[in-house]
Amino acid sequence: MPYPDQLLADDEKVVKHLHPHWITLLVPTLLLIVVVGLASFLAAIVPSGGAEDILRIVIVAVAAVTAVVVALIPYLRWRTTHYVLTTHRLMTRIGILSHTGRDVPLNRINNAMYEQSFWERLINSGTLVVESAGEDGAQTFRDIPDADRTQQLINRLVEGDHDRRSRNAARYEARYEAQYEAQYEVGHGRGHDDPDRPTRRMELP
């Protein structure tokens, strides 16, 4: 599912959108199978009698509540956990009813690295650690699918963002210098070889 465009800036594009690795749903799925199987077995062996229907209703109700707790809630938690890497930032959105969000601009990311156990290498999962400047420090993201390529992609985007900002700053400074020189020449009627013409350079923050 593509990430909602209304959450992005005008010139921002989604590069990668991830949920936690599917392995996080393995245990809830197995528990759901056990709950359904056990409920079916108990409903089938309910002795005949006046309370037969009531007992079956109780079994189904308990099974339904258990299924919600062990399977539905973990699935919704997985489904509503978003790791979104864009051309501008790394976004994290987590929560079913209450939501938690965090954005780390690419220009604040110092480094990205990943860790994989032998088991995680087999299923192509891993832990991603993103180090950023400021108060955020290092953030750890567990159960990230394709963690090694995601780490490489983050580092490439950080380098590309730095290059883009440098080019934009150089173009802006050149345009600022050209406008200043043009205004000076119009006001003084002298050309570029005027020894009295002051030089002015823009100081970027």
Automatic annotation (TrEMBL):
Q: Where are the membrane-spanning stretches?
A: 20-45, 57-76
**Cross-referenced Pfam families, in alphabetical order?**
bPH_2
Q: Which UniProt keywords apply?
A: Membrane, Transmembrane, Transmembrane helix
Which segments carry the region annotation Disordered?
182-205
What residue stretches are annotated with the YdbS-like PH domain?
78-153
The answer to keyword Membrane applying to this record is yes
The annotated regions of Basic and acidic residues compositional bias extend over 187-205
* Protein name from the UniProt record: YdbS-like PH domain-containing protein
